[in-house]
Amino acid sequence: MKIKANLLNKPVNFQMDDCQIEKVVELTRDQFSELVITPLTNQPFIAENKSRMFVDGSAGHCLLALGQGGDDGVLIYSAGYDYPRLAAYLPGVRDILNARLERAADFIVRQGTETTENGRWSVSFEELEKQTGITLQRGNGLGEMMLETLTRRGEVASAVLTDAGIDMAYHPSFCPKIPNQKPCYFAKLPEEQKTQVFYEAVETLRDFFGDENLYGVLHNGLQMPNEEILAREYLTPEAMLAAGAVMALLENSGISLRDVLQYELTEDLSLVHAQGGEPVPLEQEEELTRAERKRFSDVLDAHILESRAGEHGTELVVDGVKPERLEQFRSVLDAYGEMESYMGPVQ
Fold first, then answer.
1. Residue ranges of the domains in the chain?
2. pLDDT tens-place string over residues 81-95
3. pTM here?
4. Fold exhibited by the domain 95-174
5. Which residues contact 323 (CB under 8 A, 6 or more apart)?
6. pLDDT digit string (tens) for 97-115?
């Protein structure tokens, strides 16, 4: 019988170390394969997150690298270097992490619905770590994964990450302390009629909201999956990307950055190269002149591979353009940002 195992050279013991995941980093398949095959190579994502890896009296605080589309991960402690000084390959860790997040969601939903008297509830990251052992922060990957887990729950109307915790809104029917709840006529309808009424209401909403706000209503408010939004053609993939949707794209989708920029962009949308590097915020994109757009036509025509949750918002992952061109693009956008900070919005 053959099995796979990481055999240690002259092991002193097999005692497991206490480790705390401080941030989850989602790598492309190629990046994850490179990490696994050549773990002693310097990695940009490790260099960017050195401050998150440290040792105290309770545990070793580490990064967890996951590969897109895979269940395995690598736990990393760099000791100040740009490559893993200590690391462990963790088969199936995504499933383990998702299970822990589901248990944390159970705690958040149970605590909130049983306590709230108006449907609103807030829970701090400090309280969540105390109760669940999970270090949640805005921008550390785990916070965004927690948000995705919560928005799939039927009790949750909306969930928003803040700097200090999570602000929740629950459907009143799940909150026993909300007074004067009346029987819902909608609940008495046959299932087929409920579905018809629901989609008629969605069609009405389309007339009231722009693409960015409509995506928030459909996905975050009504819990409609991205696949259904696309299948029913409520929004185009380009409009969903501009609204900050986290989604994978088909290899032959042919969607470029230029296509997305035709729509109003959500706040905290940025651009990042498939090979890695710092995200390029797109906040100042509208300020570009016609000459600058022509100069950076290769960047605007870059192929979007996917969108993902990043440290400061949604990141559009692009390929088909040299990484250094994104840095040049960043410098131009940064110049507009600095000008605005001194002179106010550019006219």
1. 19-91, 95-174, 192-235, 250-343
2. 999 999 999 999 998
3. 0.51
4. Ribosomal Protein S8; Chain: A, domain 1 (3.30.1370)
5. 273, 275, 276, 277
6. 889 899 999 999 999 999 9
